[in-house]
Design goal:
Chains A, B: InterPro entries: EvaA-like, EvaA-like_sf. Two copies of one chain form a homodimer. Chain A is an alpha+beta fold. The first copy, chain A, is built from ten helices and 25 strands. In chain A, strands 6, 7, 8, 9, 10, 12 and 13 form a seven-stranded mixed sheet that branches. In chain A, strands 19, 20, 21, 22, 23, 24 and 25 form a seven-stranded mixed sheet that branches.
């Protein structure tokens, strides 16, 4: 039997326009007004009881330190381990260091289900509790699941809406890209960032709501509302940036990136947690740096009524100071350009990715002066409010990090402060050029993606 | 002082057409007829004297085995080392193994200089001797240099035309992409694959000649003429594939790739060469597998009159049997599609890349039967000649591998032998879809790239 093969178009050419249409809708979508959202989120938080208590690492259930290495692991062998990392870069103010690191080799799914309602794409968002969120409940993607999660290593309830992302042909894939997460805290971790579109009637469960891209943009102007998992997916959405041109061709920028990669030599080697230099167990049962810098590795006991399992314990990383991540922006020939930094992070799979212009925890650079100070840090930290186009506090993945808040900014610069011909390691990209790159994995780091999500959703317009 | 910023178009939209125009020119370019080429190459080989002698590893100059690990290294600490690798995949007929591996963390440059001559893009190709080439001299890119090479670790002569690739703005970058090399022999190695275009008058040195893409395609129909370094760059050229559609959207295929990546768990760990299980020193001073399978690690002494240094010794890997790499091709809706395989190789940076449908050294699978036999291997190995569209022997990088020949094929299949809905791990891509993917690094492996080079240069038309 021979059947006629139906060829498809390689690309859904309507997609960028449909996304832009959704991003332009603010105030109210087909289902909920943005003004109602805060009340809805509070209601969802109130509908369930959550409790997070600190416990010594030694008192975690099902987690224990390996006698030989001190590495923390779950008895199932799944989820993640906390190990040590030794990094040698040979450059900058910190050319070599050791630290604890989260090793999570499984590839998880961060998935957004979208659907046209009244002709406008709506995104199925979830009010989700994560123990590390400063406010516990934030707005998450439809699905946020480690492989252990969705293969049921914890023997809990099924992940809702998961089959839209795991069963081919259940929905139309709009994007699916492997993206890294925090290279300072994770060893070569990445997740699939997925958006799929359905034609099904989907009745949102209690914790879920349909929002337009523009409504999500409104929420991205608020502190600690849209979680990291949602932000990173939104950053990958192929938006139609209407730009007359760019300072450099895409080929030039790709070449600069390849040259940046080749000029750095980074060695990152996992070592036993118990041998990490400068870190030790503290009286409260956590693992801390000798100056109490960077983060603590600590334990929590979590009780919740609406998660796949009702109670559990786990380690978390708790940063000791607030981070700062900022893009400088300039207009060249009236087209906005963002200054990207080819950054080394010890946990990157391949040495560098593009980050924002500035990405530091300022506290750990206070003792440095002159040429040792990171470029542009002071410019951002002391920026005239009139130059600040975006300034919002977001927190990082609350399933691994406790109160990991960072201040995200977009700051106007000029030729005197950020020249068109920038210093080595930096280059100007239009938002459209970064949008093209981020459709592939491992070019753009998670902090830069948070800022790109603000652009994609029109939370800020340059 | 304010100057008007001149924006550029992000892409050279004329490039695919200009490449296609060059690919269509066969028989003679502006400088040399293809018929003259073989004579020219022989002349270049005769103009210089080369001599390659086998020597025991222990008699290499400047190379020695580390007393603690047995790892082979150069006294400068540069070039590469030969170490051990322990790989665990937990799947297939070989779920775990150890082997020697080349560790070359430096990122080298494989560069092609192109120029429009009489309105047609010509490629500056080089007749280059590499000690491992079965015929010593093959056609290479303009520049082929490790970072040690071009930063002069060997204190030799400068690499010709190098500055076109290392000095920004010396030429126009057409592409620059980090691509992996053989994951079975290299630990996470990759090189920059670069094409730059110049407007300069370039007088080719004795070893260099200008050829059109079509002429290179003619040479890609010959055994052992166009070297691997040239092939991998040519594979990345953005050709205009005129296809009415595809079986699957690009987003579907990217999603399939991400799902393939996430379902495999590969652990690859470097170990001391002296501890590699099943490998040992042989009487001739090489390192061999207990069954004399796979490859030998052996030494050569090289004498040459036209290389950056006149004489040197080095280790090489010498495969013990010929490899086979083949794409199956089918037409769906009259559009050709190639069956790609998401392959695990122990030396890949990130577990998998897309390879040809079949990529094996058949000898090492002879003992396997039934479901243990790799899919499609027998189909390719016993293909009716009438179904074979391409069948050429190419050799791999002669700077690291001795007589590493592989037979490269493209073979027609049908629904009975290769269904439209293929087995797990396989998917159908149009050449245009693979061409889009290969413009980014680490999606498409080096064997698949050799076959894509044959398509890009019209060595074979499907």
């Amino acid at each position: 039997m021979t059947t006629e093969t139906v060829l498809r178009a390689r690309h859904d050419l309507s997609l960028p326009g449909r996304l832009a249409k959704s991003a332009a809708i603010t105030g109210a979508g087909a289902v909920m007004a943005t003004a109602e959202f805060t009340g809805w989120l509070a209601e969802r938080a109130a509908a369930n009881s959550f409790r997070v208590d600190r416990v010594p690492l030694s008192e975690l259930d099902a987690w224990s330190a390996d006698p030989a290495t001190g590495n923390l692991g779950h008895r199932s062998g799944k989820f993640f381990t906390v190990e040590g990392l030794h990094v040698v870069t040979g450059e900058g103010p910190f050319p070599e260091w050791q630290q604890p690191i989260i090793n999570q080799p499984e590839v998880g799914i961060l998935g957004l289900l979208v659907k046209e309602i009244d002709g406008v794409l709506h995104f199925l968002m979830q009010a989700k509790m994560e123990p590390g969120n400063p406010n516990l409940v934030q707005l998450s993607p439809t699905v946020q699941a480690t492989r252990s999660n969705y293969t049921k290593a914890h023997k809990g309830a099924a992940v809702k809406y998961l089959d839209y992302f795991t069963e081919p042909r259940r929905a139309t894939v709009l994007l699916d890209v492997l993206q890294s997460e925090h290279g300072a805290w994770f060893f070569r971790k990445f997740n699939r960032n997925i958006i799929v579109e359905t034609q099904d009637e989907v009745v949102p469960d209690d914790e879920f709501c349909w929002l337009t891209l523009g409504q999500i943009g409104e929420l991205l102007r608020l502190d600690n509302v849209v979680n990291m998992d949602a932000r990173t997916i939104l950053a990958c959405a192929p938006m139609p940036y209407d730009e007359a041109g760019a300072l450099r061709t895409d080929a030039d920028l790709r070449s600069w990136y390849a040259a940046e990669r080749s000029r750095h030599s980074v060695q990152a080697r996992r070592i036993p947690l118990s041998s990490v230099d400068g870190w030790a167990a503290a009286d409260d049962g956590s693992i801390v740096h000798e100056r109490d810098w960077y983060f603590r590795v600590m334990g929590v006991r979590v009780q919740a009524t609406n998660r796949e399992v009702a109670a559990w314990t786990q380690p978390l990383f708790e940063p000791r100071a607030m981070g700062l991540a900022a893009f400088l922006v300039r207009r060249f020939g009236r087209v906005p350009h963002l200054l990207a930094h080819a950054r080394i992070e010890g946990g990157f799979l391949d040495a560098i990715e593009l980050g924002p212009t500035v990405q530091y925890t300022p506290k750990y650079y206070e003792h440095l002066s002159g040429s040792q100070r990171p470029p542009f840090l002071d410019l951002v930290a002391t920026a005239d409010p009139a130059r600040i186009r975006y300034d919002v506090v977001h927190s990082e993945e609350g399933g691994r990090f406790l109160n990991a808040e960072g201040r995200y900014l977009i700051v106007e610069a000029d030729e005197a402060t950020a020249p068109a011909d920038p210093p080595p390691g930096y280059h100007w990209f239009t938002p459209g050029q970064l949008n093209t790159l981020v459709s592939h994995g491992r070019y753009v780091n998670v902090q830069a993606r948070t800022l790109l999500a603000a652009l994609n959703t029109y939370a800020v317009e340059l």
